[in-house]
Amino acid sequence: MRILGLSSFRHDTSAALLEDNRIVAAIEDAKFSRTQSRGLPEAAIRYCLEAAGATWHELDEVAVSARPVQGWMRRSWGAMRTSPLAPVSGAYFEANELGSLARDLSNLRVLRHKNGTSGCKFRSYEHHQCHAASAFYLSPFDRALILTMDEDGDGRCGMLAVGESTQMRPLQSIAFPHSLAWVYSQITELLGFVPRKEEHKTQWLSLEGEAKYKQVFLKMLRSGDSLLPRIDSSFLQYGVTGRLALASKFYRQLGISEGTQTLADDQRRELASSVQQACTEIVGDLLDFYCKREGIQNVCLGGGLFQNVLLVSDLEKRLGLDRIFVPPAPGNSGCSVGAAMLAWHQDKSRPRRESESGNYWGPAFGDHQIKDVLDNSKSRYAVQTTSDRRNDSTTKLLQAGKIVGWFQGRAEFGPRALGNRSLLASLWAPYVKENMNDFVKHREWFRPFAISIPDEDCAQYFDASRNCGAMNSLATVKAGVDVVPADFLLPGRRVRLHVVDRKSNPMFWNLLKRFGEQAPAPMLLNTSFNIAGEPLVTRPQDAVRSYYCSGIDALVVESFVLSKATAMHVLAGVRAG
Description:
Helix content is 40%, strand content 19%. The protein starts with a strand and ends with a helix. Strands 13-22-21-14-15-20-16-19-18-17 form a ten-stranded mixed beta sheet, sandwiched between helices. Strands 3-2-1-4-5 form a five-stranded mixed beta sheet. A five-stranded mixed beta sheet has the order 8-7-6-11-12, sandwiched between helices. The longest helix is centred in the middle third of the chain and has 30 residues, at 265-294. With 577 residues, the protein is α/β, with parallel strands linked by helices. The chain has three domains: 2-128, Nucleotidyltransferase, domain 5 (2-Layer Sandwich); 137-328, Nucleotidyltransferase, domain 5 (2-Layer Sandwich); 367-576, Carbamoyltransferase, C-terminal domain (DHBP synthase, Alpha-Beta Complex).
């Protein structure tokens, strides 16, 4: 049985194909278009069908994580209750909502038209149901409390449910506009970052300041007696364009002039720390209460808010290191997997598969395809005919302090580079962070890089949870371990860690082991293979363009090794040897 799952059409669109309870393919549309995607994920759908060797007529069901009409009704009702005395703003808001509703309904019509005369069924699920399904059905837990939180999905900002075997029982929902994620995005914009895109920068900046304004955020977000987030309406307003915004009261409470274009560095750090700690406390208290009430120990988290790895790490400290699970793609893109799994498990009560590590569900490319791309771009390359020779060449480059683009196997699904579309470097190379930032990533100084390590070696150096397999949490360096350079340590001796499972990614695992034979430890700096502002590279042509347009020293694409002048002598030494 084949089920095509689609995320909602608003942002971060994706498609996933489930075949007899196995994820055959899943990819975000933006990784093909190379830009932010909305609407129907045409390229992602095309890839999923090709990967399964199927056509539209061979699908049994199409599951979409959106109910546009319900979402429009809820958002309109929520806006009317929040700002009843602003008719002009309300009119603008309603006009925008009607336009979005029309686009969503049009996308659903196009989808049905593509399916033509096929007899497959169409199913629509609530957005947060799909977040919950992605979190629970991919988890190793048979029973768990499920919490989802994002800015808005079908007029809801979150939900609580209990998952048992193949079924999910809703407990509570969080109504629009009472969203922690929305407030976090507003602070991201206030700090000078791009909202709904650069919240990770707010997260990392929060480590640099004190939570001076935490009580202001708690006061704003804990209106009423419920533990569920509820924004005090006096802190909200709708602008003349109908856009929900923070009211003057919020800025007065902070002692900041409304409309301030730039904040002092100390204020930025304090604001970031305050909103981060307030969200952590609210979510932690909520989980504590419902875990005790339902008699549950394990927790599954879904929704865009839980892409915040600091939040997840702090919740693990509070609830227990292996009591929490976050799926590889907790944000909107993961809803395509959730929708397909809902159709399989909850609707049909079909049994779950054993939890698998890895999320390499994107496209892979053969040597002939890659050679065509390299020849067309007039690239010079060496061919390494065995995996051992490829690993030896890559290891020599890394030991020489080079930055290497690593492109192997199927692309990762989700926002993290997990060893198949990664930029790699030695942790112990001189100026490695500066070189990676200045010549490739162009990132802010306070943002950390991740460390990859084989699963078998992890316990020797780190205390880490299973969430580090998808880079969804932080690990702590063990007492007495001094092999990790100070540049990679966060406060409390925490690090961004990627634990590599041999079964799910043998190629990257072998490279780490090979590198570790002549390095202080089998660890490599691992960051996403992309140019700043772009999605992860997916195809060989994306990798080649990023390689030539940045300070990457060498590129390893399957069996092909490319190197620039600074790395040429290293490879020459390998060939001579």
